[in-house]
């Protein structure tokens, strides 16, 4: 009962249309009950604290201290709101709507006429088994209702780099893919965002991607295979626009195809030059195109408890383990003989949001 973080008690009152029998209640009083004709004998300060409690709520209400009451509607029709809470609940004449405990979203837990209101139909006091069961069943119900209603998705993917980086002399390939290359040259990362236009068995979306790779290696002399002591680095940053079509196969699997125009920024750097020398760093840009496919395996359906927590806090309707394949091609850099192309594959995590 003392765990205020989880306490929220809703007491509805309407003088002209009462629930049924009940009592006026003054928190902290010895008896705790006042009939309607006795309220006039109370002080003005006491009157402001009185709450009307239907008999159905009386037993539970008597267990609470005044400080444990989240808020209630007293006989005056105005709200009493405890200072330690930010109560944003909405009460209308015919329905009640409660904010979720964690405040991440507003939701309609039940639509009940006041005349048919029962205490055990809403969350109450400190969490017990009944309250937990009610809240969990409501969250699962919302998850099922929204399992294919996400409006946006974000994916983070790590790819094994199958691209070839070539130039006319073959130095790129020897430097960044040969014996002098660093281990991390084989990987790159990409962040994707998509926004759904239409959802059914087939989903349509538009979006974009931004990726990055960092490669390093020691130069190779042009006349032989000897490595130099000069280290070269190569940074690539592709930016894409995406048209996306997605197919749903039950609750567990989605298959996505995407593609569109792309632009890649490329920055070369060598450590044997001073900062003011013109060929220490060379930046270039090329237009190109890309396309790919993504298999999405629903972790949200496999681990519903985790999905429930994510949905309750951030409105994540589903999340996926992804298997990705991507082809890209760029050949319009300032130095005409440079070309970046190939197929990359990898794994990622995708999240869909309401």
Record field, number of beta strands: 16
Parts with pLDDT < 50 across at least 5 consecutive residues: 1-20, 28-40, 65-135
Helix-strand category: mainly beta
Largest sheet: 8 strands, antiparallel, barrel
- Mean pLDDT comes to 69
Determine the CATH topology of the largest domain: Porin
**Oligomerization category of the chains in this entry:** single chain
The topology string of helices and strands comes to: EHEHEEEEEHEEHEEEEEHHEE
Distance between the ends:
34 Å
Strand ordering within the main sheet: 8-10-11-12-13-14-15-16
Percent of residues in beta strands: 35-45%
Provide the domain count: 2
- Helical residue percent band: 10-25%
Round the Cα radius of gyration to an integer and report it.
32 Å
Count of helix runs: 6
The CATH class of the largest domain is Mainly Beta
User: What is the CATH-assigned architecture of the largest domain?
Assistant: Beta Barrel
Q: Would you mind describing this structure in some detail?
A:
The chain has 354 residues and is mostly beta strands. It has 2 domains: 4-136, no CATH class; 152-353, Porin (Beta Barrel). The chain is 14% helix and 43% strand. It has helices at residues 44-47, 55-61, 129-145, 171-176, 299-302, 304-314; strands at residues 22-25, 51-54, 71-72, 80-81, 90-91, 96-99, 106-107, 152-160, 163-166, 187-198, 202-220, 227-249, 253-270, 281-298, 316-330, 339-353. It has an 8-stranded antiparallel β-barrel with strand order 8-10-11-12-13-14-15-16. It has a 3-stranded antiparallel β-sheet with strand order 5-6-7, with no helix packed on it. A hairpin with a 3-residue loop joins strand 10 (187-198) and strand 11 (202-220). Helix 3 (129-145) crosses helix 6. Mean pLDDT is 69; it is low at 1-20, 28-40 and 65-135.
């Amino acid at each position: 009962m003392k765990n205020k973080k989880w306490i929220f008690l809703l007491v509805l009152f309407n003088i002209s249309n009462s629930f049924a029998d009940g009592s006026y209640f003054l928190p902290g009083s010895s008896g705790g009950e006042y009939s309607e004709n006795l309220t006039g004998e109370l002080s003005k300060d006491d009157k402001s604290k009185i709450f009307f409690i239907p008999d159905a709520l009386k037993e539970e209400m008597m267990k609470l201290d005044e400080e444990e009451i989240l808020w209630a509607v007293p006989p005056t029709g105005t709200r009493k709101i405890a200072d330690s809470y930010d109560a944003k609940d909405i009460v209308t004449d015919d329905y009640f709507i409660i904010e979720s405990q964690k405040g991440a979203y507003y939701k309609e837990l039940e639509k009940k006429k006041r005349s048919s209101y029962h205490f055990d139909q809403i969350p109450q006091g400190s969490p017990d088994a009944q309250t937990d069961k009610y809240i969990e069943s409501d969250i699962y119900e919302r998850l099922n209702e929204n399992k294919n209603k996400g409006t946006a998705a974000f994916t983070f993917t790590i790819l094994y780099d199958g691209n070839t980086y070539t130039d006319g002399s073959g130095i790129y390939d020897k430097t960044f893919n040969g014996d002098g290359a660093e281990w991390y040259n084989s990987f790159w990362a990409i962040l994707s965002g998509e926004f759904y236009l239409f959802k059914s068995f087939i989903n349509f979306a538009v979006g974009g991607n931004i990726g990055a790779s960092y490669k390093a290696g020691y130069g190779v002399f042009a006349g032989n295979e000897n490595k130099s002591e000069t280290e070269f680095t190569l940074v690539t940053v592709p930016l894409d626009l995406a048209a996306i079509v997605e197919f749903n196969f039950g609750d567990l699997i989605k298959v996505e195809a995407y593609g569109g125009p792309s632009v890649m920024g490329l920055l070369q750097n060598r450590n044997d030059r001073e900062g003011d020398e013109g060929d220490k760093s060379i930046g270039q840009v090329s237009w190109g195109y890309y396309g790919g496919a993504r298999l999405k395996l629903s972790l949200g359906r496999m681990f519903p408890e985790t999905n429930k927590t994510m949905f309750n806090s951030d409105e994540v309707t589903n999340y996926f383990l992804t298997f990705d394949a991507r082809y890209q091609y760029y050949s319009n850099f300032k130095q005409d003989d440079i070309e970046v192309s190939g197929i990359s594959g990898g794994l990622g995590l995708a999240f869909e949001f309401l």
